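Morning run. Coffee first, then this:
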Amino acid sequence: MYILNHSCKVERPVLNAFIRWINDYYGEKDKNGNQLHDYRYSKLCAPLEDDDSVIIIIQVFIDEIHEVLDLYLTEQQEIFQTRMYQAFQNRVLSFLTLMEVLKKHD
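And here it is:
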């Protein structure tokens, strides 16, 4: 179990899934799936051994999500279409909802 926000516990498989989809959105890839740009969270595709690092990275993501989205939209407006943004928002809301549910069942 991993403690988020000092009160929310998350199983490692849930955390791994979250890390994978963050990486899907933070970094444009070429037709072979290779990373073209090194965005702030692209490193999350690497295995994370240090539990403290996992907690800190997830906390930073939650705290800075709007700032990062603004940065991404500014740099990549022509390719970051509205429907992609909406899908991203929905997935973020789903994750944050999951965190709230996990907190309540702690």
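The helical segments are 12-25, 51-76, 82-104. Good start to the day.
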